[in-house]
Amino acid sequence: MDDDLVRALATDLYGTFPRVVERMGRRLYWGLRRMSGDHHEAEDLTQETLIRAYQALCGYQHDRICELKLEPWLWTIALNLGRNHLRSKSRRPTLVKLTEPQGVEDPEMVDGAAWDRRLNALPPTQRTAVVLRHVVGLGIDEIAEATGRPVGTVKTDIHRGLGRLRTIMEAETYDARA
Questions:
Q1: For helices 39-59 and 13-36, what crossing angle results, to 10°?
Q2: Which candidate in 60, 150, 156, 163 could, as Cys together with 64 as Cys, close a disulfide (CB 3.0–4.6 Å)?
Q3: What's the CA gap between 170 and 79, in Å, rounded?
């Protein structure tokens, strides 16, 4: 599927790019959502990733587009934007809500918030590797290409990240029983 899409991009970028957005937009959003823990940040980063990808493709020659591994390339853009966003965010003051909203929370949102909390407890490299593998569904080689890390290191990050998640969830279960 990627090869057909890439060939179509090389011949008709303007007409084909909406298919890229349709195919990759949700995957990018959910991966970035799990990495950032924030809906609005994930939306912004997804849009910016797709805009930057389109702009880059406009400057590429036909042969360069044909050689592209589309999904890892898009994730490289997304991860770089995410890192830059976190860097600039750390330099800005954080707004704090003074009151909590009242009412019953949606169980899916609580679970989503729990996963955000769990994933945010992981070191960034482990969180990225786990999300790209188990939320987005990229292969090990694709993750290595997107992150610029060796395959063995990516495997280690996933293994250690899953181990930490297991420990976090066991602690939550123990705390809930106590």
A1: 150
A2: 60
A3: 30
Can you give the CATH number for the domain in which 133 is found? 1.10.10.10
Q: Is 167 exposed, middle or buried (0-12, 13-18, 19+ CB in 10 A)?
A: exposed
pLDDT at 137: 86
**pTM as predicted:** 0.67
Domain that holds residue 68: 1-93
Mean of pLDDT values over 5-16:
90
Instruction: Report d(CA 27, CA 49) in Å as an integer.
Output: 12
Q: What is the dihedral of CA 71, 45, 123, 173, to 10 degrees?
A: -100
Query: 64: part of which helix (H) or strand (E)?
Result: helix 62-66
Name the 3-class secondary structure at 107: helix
User: Positive or negative CA dihedral for 22, 23, 26, 28?
Assistant: negative
Same domain, 89 and 128: no
